[in-house]
Amino acid sequence: MPINVRIPTPLRQLTGGEELVIVTAANVGAAIAEMQAKYPGIKDRLLDDKGEVRRFVNVYVNEEDIRFLQNQATPLKDGDEISIIPAIAGG
Amino acid sequence: MDKHEGFMKALKCRECGKEYPLSATHVCEFDFGPLEVAYDYDRIKQSLTRAAIESRPRTMWRYRELLPIAGEPTVGFQVGYTPLVKADRLAKRLGIRELWVKNDTVNYPTLSFKDRVVSVALSRSRELGFKTVACASTGNLANSVAANAAAAGLKSYVFIPSDLEQGKVVNSLVYGANVISIKGHYDEVNRLCAEIAGKFGWAFVNVNMRPYYAEGSKSMGFEICEQLGWRTPQHTVVPMASGSLLTKIHKSYQEFAKLGLVADGSWHIHGAQATGCNPISSAEKAGMDFFKPVKPNTIAKSLAIGTPADGFYALKVMKETAGHADDVTDDEVREGIRLLAECEGIFAETAGGVTVGVAKKLIASGKIPAGDSAVLCITGNGLKTLDAVVGHVGQTREIRPSLREFEAMLKDEEKQLVPA
Question: What is the pLDDT of residues B387-399, one digit of tens each?
């Protein structure tokens, strides 16, 4: 079941310039593991040494912040879209 | 050092310290930490003296060495140096010995502190060769980007949540900006803008220009110190949306102390939020060093950021300076607006009501001791958020143009005031 992951500019060096990556994982955590297998190093950029999503990384599933869902346990289904976005300043 | 980079040395990650060139980029490629401008303080110390500052025009650019542009400013020459008002009547009402209001409701040209950050961001954008500037905004930033871009002949796109106050929408449209209204709250506007900024070659003032933009806020703190007679205030109460202003006020005091412009004393920085969007203040009250994002629901729309990018650092500053945070309800926000208006003749927007309301709470609870002195940072003008106070600030009384009717009305009032 294909799920689109939108890759932010700072991570595109790891994906060979790709801004859209397809995964088939059942939840967000598994999607990160799947990306790590394909693009080694990407997991360290997203997760800290405790395995938590880094403080300045925001992950969204279908435009909803995963902290309002079930964090890395947030389930994924066919056609879902994941966005990875750095935190940005106020306005 | 390359003289074309002014007093800046590099962009540096606040998390891991990795350095980057002084380009339009805002996050560390490794850990996504925010990038911040690193300065050559030894060189700054040689030219930035009290005498030098006092000899310069009364604008924020009198602290130019500590603002991140390479050459001279090309946008917003007149911004800043707003009044620091000794607020004796409000002090009495809030029960504190001494109180000051840093009044950015009259900042030039768009009546909010955002003119400070925008003049820096747009001056730097020009240096980097951008022709189009943009922002994600809760309103004030949009106004300022639209106005300053127009005056500088730059094209602008401003992105706002669709539920914004009419005053703030009109205040962007009038300058000919492209105003894009997003069906969603600010955090959603922000997310979209992060994606747009990655795709288009525009200078997004609070995305890829953020390291420069955010530094502009320091000028508010520099001015407070100078206007107090070259000293830091004991207490400063700052409204928090993303938390950026609070961290930059702290940084401004640190820099002035480091350069010997003020005595290296201690100060307390306190943060103010609305109860309907209080991710930072609730974390501070619970003694946590991280925050949980919230979905905003408050009349203080300029502070309605549920995922505050600098929330972590704001918490750190409050902890380090033994400051506190609190939040106030919509009714308390309106009461704060009225208190400031009735006591000092200053009409602030909802964020100002938040700041006054929280100061009142912190003084009442003794977190700001009654015998101390405090500065309130009032960041935007009440004319922009009329919707929030209409119907809550009294009513006009209508009479015919007749002296007799007027006298009768006064008599009626006297009767009501003096019980028989």
Answer: 999 999 888 999 9
